[in-house]
Design a protein that fits this description.
Elements lengths: L2 H29 L1 E3 L7 E10 L2 E14 L2 E9 L7 E7 L8 E7 L4 H10 L6 H11 L1
């Protein structure tokens, strides 16, 4: 594959990742309670996007919120372009920092959401952002 073909392929992957995340955000807005700052102990889904010129990155996660005012951590599973599927992790949010290029969307789920995803993972039915979108669509 030539460098030009590789660049086009990578750009298409970025566009498809952007579209996949856009679909997730749409479902979150339809089905979940969107909040700016989640309460301590709530189960949430979070999307962090950053777009600078033609570069696009996204981080998607879900888990329990642990607030340490003014910051908070989402402890659970996360998905980035560097991981082929959701992995254990923590997303740290610093609320005092203002980002011009980052967008943040947080949706509060009902209790038991994480347990249902864990069961889907154990059954081998949950790996990526599309799976998360489908679970949100079916459960809420």
């Amino acid at each position: 594959m030539s460098q030009v073909e590789l660049l086009i392929s990578n750009n298409n992957q970025d566009n498809s990742m952007e579209q996949i995340v856009a679909n997730l955000k749409e479902k979150m807005r339809q089905k979940l309670e969107i909040v700016e700052k989640p309460e301590n102990g709530k189960e949430v889904v979070i999307v962090i996007e950053e777009k600078i010129e033609k570069s696009y990155t996204a981080e998607v996660g879900f888990g329990k919120c642990w607030r340490l005012d003014p910051n908070y951590d989402i402890v659970g599973k996360m998905f980035t372009e560097n991981t082929p599927e959701f992995v254990d992790g923590t997303i740290k949010i610093h609320t005092k920092e203002k980002y011009k290029t980052r967008k943040l969307l947080i949706g509060v789920t009902e209790p038991g959401f994480i347990r249902k995803i864990d069961e889907a993972i154990w059954d081998g039915k949950f790996k990526n952002i599309e799976d998360l979108t489908n679970i949100i669509d079916r459960l809420f």
